[in-house]
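Let us work through a complete example step by step.
Step 1: write down the sequence.
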Amino acid sequence: MLQGKVVVVTGANGALGRAAVALAAEQGAEVVELDLRFDGAPGARQHAVDLTDAAAAAACLSAIGRIDVVLNIAGGFAMGPAVHETTPEQWLHMTRMNVDTARNVMTAVVPGMLARGRGSIVNVGALSAREGQANMSAYCVAKSTVMRLTESLSKELRAKGINVNAVLPSIIDTPTNRKDMPDADHSRWVAPRDLAAAMCFLGSDAARAIHGVLLPVAGLA
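Step 2: predict the structure and record it as tokens.
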């Protein structure tokens, strides 16, 4: 579905990122991987970059050249205290990881997509952020912001050949989540490859009529 496309995967060194890189490559894409760091020395198509730094993100993405699809996975999760006990640093940490990374990437790639009259951006929101959750306020606010950015950018670009959508996973079956929740029924969680498949579909020409969708990918949760 992604044959011949240049696909940028952010957060490429994480569990979901690695699944997306593998699946996009299987579908014929030329995959470019971005993350804060990689295991070992980065390969030729791997770029170690701090996407919370707008200038660094812009420079990195500009050097790549043509970008057809962005799978915007970079982000993170942390439980927190109650709203009234959440520190400014905790609010900022969730915002920087989830909102700034996504916004900086979108800001950098959209002009090139506009110039070519085509492109696709797929962000990662969160099913839990459709409403507030106890002890997750900073995370829910950050992911809700990503979801509103997705909708807004989609309305701005849909008539210009650019698709902007997001997936909303429940709990992803990652080693970290298994470690943090050892007694949970992991079979009910979302496999990274299944979530990556939804993202690759939204990045493909088969999804050219889909704009501004927030697609729940919940497994059996």
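Step 3: interpret the result. Residues 88-116 form the longest helix (29 residues).
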